[in-house]
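Researcher: I've been going back and forth with a colleague about how SLC13 family permease might be arranged in three dimensions. Neither of us has a model we trust, so I'd like an independent prediction. The organism is Natrinema pallidum, in case that matters for your notes. Sequence below.
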Amino acid sequence: MLVVFGIIAIALVLFITEWLPIDVTAILIMVLLMVLGADGVVNATEISTSEGTSGFSSSATITVLAMLILSSGISQTGVVQILGRKMAAFAGDDLDKQLLATIGISGPISGFINNTPVVAILVPVVSDIAHKGKTSPSKLLIPLSYASMFGGMLTLIGTSTNILASDVSARLSTEYPELHQFSMFEFTKLGIVVLVVGSLYLMTIGHRLLPERVPVEEDYVQEYAIEEYLTEVVVDGDSPIVGTTVADAIDHVEFDADILQVVRDDEEFIEPIAQKTIREGDLLRLRADRDTVQQFVDRGTLTLAGNPQTDEELEPDEVTDQTLVEIVVPRGSFLVGESLETSTFRQRYDATVLAFRSRGETVRDHMEERRIRVGDTLLVQAAPDSIDRLSQNDDFIVAHEPEEPDYRTEKIPHAAAIMAGVVGFVAVPWGTVGTTLTGLTGVGAFEALSALSLPILVTALAGVVAMVATGVLKPTEIYDAVEWDVIFLLAGIIPLGIALEQTGGADLLGSLVAMTGTYLPPLGVLWVFYLATGLITGVISNNASVVLMLPVAVQTADQIGANPFAFVLAVTFAASTAFLTPVGYQTNLFVYGPGGYKFTDFVRVGAPLQLLLSIVTVLGINFFWGL
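Model: Here is an independent structure prediction for SLC13 family permease. You can compare it with whatever you and your colleague have in mind.
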């Protein structure tokens, strides 16, 4: 038991500090459990090799994998983006309508498409709504993230946390008959209550607590405060960089400077300019600090000419499309854990990073060696075709919707029918249908329907096959659609939950928490579990908190004579609605940078919401399922 607690402590430290990527941490957990559980070593964790790798064969892991692919298929058709544009047309420049449209689209859709890709799709749409409607994106992006979490609780497939909780509940049902695997609409009635109450909070109170971090009139140069890092210089005739290419010039001068543009004879050149030869009299626009520029001047290499102060001065007049955009780094991106230097970002995409936001901090100098993390937002300058390439790459979320996006709109009916089948075949009460048809027709063959049970795992995998067969997805795209770090996270933490149960750790923790039952009624203990799960989820993965908290919650319910299923639901809802911090849920990270938020903004808006929903959810569980 102590060994398992030690492994949990190591996992918590690594999740919080992000010294290792979360998927690598999960694999480390798996390895430690198997090594320390092997016969002939110490056999301290009671985890065999087959149990240690059981996370890969878990129905939860495979179902999440399939749902990620199905969500990708929906996004490829552009149906969410089309709804987003209709939302923009409805919203106009009225903040209340903008909020209503943002919440009204993201919430319900997240019940049937995994809420993480929903937010990734809608970030550029909502950002455009804000700027066209003369509203700060800061007023809309946190509501977008929170609303997607509300919607994720409408069905089993709204979020990976629900699927994992259902799997853990089914595993624990062998010891606790009151537990079972969740049905598709198991908690929809409470999910609707949470969606309505949460939406009303955001519409009336929440948005008023949000500051306008990003200016209404978007100007990236001023927003990122990079004016002092932008300089215009003229190349002198005796400069050593005359006759060299831009790439060689940057390597030749050994200090931190980026050549953003070359202006020659009133013609402006932006990326790709690496192979453009520099001539005497060229005007170069640089990203460099004052000391670096002074070195240029002191060496007689360049002559100072001025400073660009706005976006317009950085974007060439002859280029009609946008050349300055923000891109968000999602989980699974090759940039995570890399620096701009090691990732060769500029060379790969013919794009220059002017600054970036990381966990609320704006980084403007010495960026090349700074490690990039999930949720970081890069301010990038590139030619329009390079921006198009970035927007089509799953490694980035470009916070700007392209004018002519390439969607498979002709496949919308196929995708909709497939998703309806995936959900419908699980939701249909086949036993009732079979019995009714047998009674009406007298045909005994219908009795076979009574025994039919299609789990979401089967219908989701069938949906993947159907998406490829109908051309909604290309075969190679199904691998790109999977967030492999999430899959490895699930595979690594599932055996940790098994170890917690088998060593008696869950029983011990449950007994300790059950002691609060001496002072609190069962409803109060349930509320404590909701709050505890919410706080833990705020610093570690929501999936990890479910695996750690569910066995303890069930043991606690058993100790105080309460309904274990009620405690399972409380933990599930709390883990799937993590409002307190930007790192508690991936959708919060997606909006962190584009909204210009600080860590405290999530606390300011999320804490009252978390408290409100803790009361609503706990009372709702008691009303619908009883304690």
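Researcher: What would you highlight for our discussion?
Model: I'd start with this: The CA atoms of residues 324 and 381 lie 5 Å apart. After that, consider the following. The two ends are 30 Å apart (CA to CA).
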